[in-house]
Amino acid sequence: MKSLTATEVARNFSQVLDDLEESHEEVVIVRNHRMIARIIPEPEEQNALEVLGDLYRTLDDETADALAEAMRLDREGNAGTLTELRDPWDS
């Protein structure tokens, strides 16, 4: 985390953004010795397959298998349903 004064940020805003983009390190803006704001870099872009892979790793085996089967059926043109999937938020 990098700390800059509000004056430094105002005078060098373009450079601050360039540094943020390159280093992916958040910047804390300080005014009168107090932290007043934070500039946080956007996470790197992910395609749908990467996002689904992250989700897939959080599922139990039974739910992951049911999801994979439903996706396979959908790709084959068969209308698969997801009713057999367990709701992870349902206790």
Radius of gyration: 22 Å
* Portion in strands: 15-25%
**Count the strands?**
3
Number of domains: 2
Output the structural class: alpha+beta
Task: Give the secondary structure arrangement, pairings included.
Blueprint: E1 2-5, H1 6-11, H2 13-23, E2 27-31, E3 34-39, H3 48-56, H4 61-75
Please give a structural write-up.
The protein is α+β, with helices and mostly antiparallel strands. The protein folds into two domains: 2-39, YefM-like fold (3-Layer(aba) Sandwich), CATH 3.40.1620; 45-84, no CATH class. It is 45% helix and 16% strand. The protein has helices spanning 6-11, 13-23, 48-56, 61-75, and strands at residues 2-5, 27-31, 34-39. Strands 1-2-3 form a three-stranded mixed sheet. The chain starts with a strand and ends in a 16-residue tail after the last helix.
Task: Label this structure with key terms.
elongated; 91 residues; 2 domains; alpha+beta; three-stranded mixed β-sheet; YefM-like fold
Task: Provide a compact summary of the structure.
By secondary structure, the chain is an alpha+beta fold. Helices cover 45% and strands 16% of the residues.
